[in-house]
């Protein structure tokens, strides 16, 4: 390895760490008794994964549908007043998360974070040549989306493993792909693009497997908790999410990366922002369906769909960009075509999970993702002979132009 290439390998991790350090110090730095500088329990959103099953399967299911009661209940579990949390996952996740809830909090958090990152890394590295995996893992481990998920106890590693895993298995094991997509319904808004592209591809076995998987999960949770519990969940969770989008106030807004969030940050009203979001979503779906039909390369398809996933929903967050990050690592490692002239787009999209938080709501959080989506569609529909991937690539495709 030359000195120049070694410096190139460090560009993306160095940018990531430089952007993440202020966030760590200002928002996540541990202070005392497992509490960070802003008063949150370390692990933040993992609190729901750990506390929800304890309450629901411990005879207190109703507290999940009462925002004040739930807040009081989780504060009681930790023995101190905590900032506001709400239960937002579908009820079939409760028995799935239950084993973690039986462990001490920090043990469970470690298992959750390390275990899910291992799965995420395995899916990502499976598409990269063995000789390049060590460097790819280094960049993936220090990527902004990775750091945000690790420090915040988020679900991004899990959702990306299911989303990318399903796309990668679509041609070879369509039923397994459907099962993975069915499991992704634990965050249904992240799979909005999938029904359209699966129909466009005529992937009927995958669709059937996804529907059956989702049906089994729903049926099991109904048998366990009853119809009324689901009714309460939909009413409370649905109205609360709508209220969050309407009021658009608080720390969470800095973590949102969607067309809707960009417009709301600029002062555009709720209805107008939602209308623009829908107007953007329609051509994104059309282009995504066109692109995936023009290529059989699963990694190209994954890059298109990962970008589309973030552009379709108004409720997209920076920790959901793990799928985009994985596809960018494939690009940097030479698995996907690398266009030198698009270097700024790659770097900006890679940095988006943390740069958006540092800049606040500035109205352009999704611009790198829009540009990357356009590039991904171009690459997907490009004839194979014109693809950069058809030419010998350097050992690691990070050009000097990014320095």
Provide a descriptive summary of the structure in words.
A hairpin with a 2-residue loop joins strand 1 and strand 2 (35-36). The model is unreliable at 1-5 and 388-403 (pLDDT under 50). This protein has helices spanning 3-28, 46-60, 67-78, 93-101, 105-125, 133-141, 144-152, 156-169, 174-183, 194-201, 204-225, 227-247, 259-265, 270-294, 298-312, 322-332, 343-359, 367-381, and strands at residues 30-32, 35-36. The chain has one domain. The two termini are 18 Å apart. Strands 1-2 form a two-stranded antiparallel ribbon. With 403 residues, the protein is mainly alpha-helical. Helix content is 66%, strand content 1%. It is built from 18 helices and two strands.
- Looking across the biggest beta sheet, what order are the strands in? 1-2
| Radius of gyration using CA atoms only | 21 Å
Largest sheet: 2 strands, antiparallel
How many helices in DSSP terms? Answer: 18
Structural class call reads mainly alpha
Number of domains: 1
What spatial form do the alpha-carbon principal axes imply? globular
- Termini Cα gap: 18 Å
User: Could you state the order of secondary-structure elements as H and E?
Assistant: HEEHHHHHHHHHHHHHHHHH
The parts where pLDDT drops under 50 for at least 5 residues are: 1-5, 388-403
**SS elements, strand count:** 2
Query: What is the share of helical residues?
Result: 55-70%
Mean pLDDT: 90
Please report which band the strand proportion falls in: under 5%, 5-15%, 15-25%, 25-35%, 35-45% or over 45%.
under 5%
